[in-house]
Amino acid sequence: MTPAPFGAELRDVVVRYGDEQALDGADVAFRPGIITGLIGRNGAGKTTLLSLLASLRRPTSGTVRVDGVDPFEDPLVMAGVHLVRESGDVIGDEPVRRTLRYYAATRPNWSTDLAAELLDVFAIVTKKSPNSLSRGQRSALGAVLGLASRAPLTIFDEVYLSMDAPSRYAFYDAVLADYAEHPRTIIISSHLIEEVERLFEDVVIIDRGRVLVADSADAIRARGTGLTGPADAVEAIAREHTVLARQRLGGVVRVTLDVALDDDARRAVRAAGVEVDSVGLQDLFVHLTRKETP
Ligand SMILES: Nc1ncnc2c1ncn2[C@@H]1O[C@H](COP(=O)(O)OP(=O)(O)OP(=O)(O)O)[C@@H](O)[C@H]1O
């Protein structure tokens, strides 16, 4: 039986490493039973945030809750959280099957069948040791362990970056297929968005230790609006909104706005001789997390 998915939340969380402030008052809730994408630039604080949920560290201040409790204080909740990270939590110098036996013995929802099926998909030979696998195969092994554990809160911290394209797509398909049969809370961190965004129902964008945006992927996609046309007409509309980016070519201007325009508003824009289009999640992320303002 699939256990109930865990929700998770951070309230006003600060994490400092010496002088470095990795999280700076982060507030966010991860809905139970949903796949959420956690996106942010290098150094934004993704790994730090995820390590709090997995009880690998405590916040300097603020509150962390997983399934309603402080995970650090609750071994049962801690056992229901599985974090897959690049370093891999494996027995490095012994055959992969030793690691599999360890997970089978310690993960209450472990699926031997799913593990066998995915090891086959990724062509991982279980008599080899994790240390003797290629980097991509080691990442795939981490993904297999994360999926086959079927933890109520499963977290993938950029694990698939070393995998080649066919393996990454096999991973995405495996996430969706197993999630459909055994719904759980899944958080996937990434700064490569286009490939993975079809998995996300919710998206959290983190920037310099703060949560910039947390919403459904559809609502976030609707926010990015591009306008292209004669400078006067475009600027007259842009004046009313937050401009994320601006490009000029002769008398033509293109602006990216942080606004969701409804059908009536789009018709009015077109009537003014301005083209309107939607900006993808990746472009919106790039514009929202740029260091300088347009
Ligand atoms: N152990 C540590 N000691 C000191 N500073 C750290 C430590 N771990 C992380 N940091 C700093 O905290 C900030 C956030 O790092 P974090 O690893 O959480 O970012 P990230 O979003 O996961 O980045 P990436 O996408 O590059 O993996 C960075 O500025 C980083 O230098």
UniProtKB/TrEMBL annotation:
Record-level Gene Ontology MF annotations: ATP binding; ATP hydrolysis activity
Occurrences of domain ABC transporter (ranges): 8-233
Keywords annotated in UniProt: ATP-binding, Nucleotide-binding
Protein name (Swiss-Prot/TrEMBL): ABC transporter related
Species per Swiss-Prot/TrEMBL record: Beutenbergia cavernae (strain ATCC BAA-8 / DSM 12333 / CCUG 43141 / JCM 11478 / NBRC 16432 / NCIMB 13614 / HKI 0122)
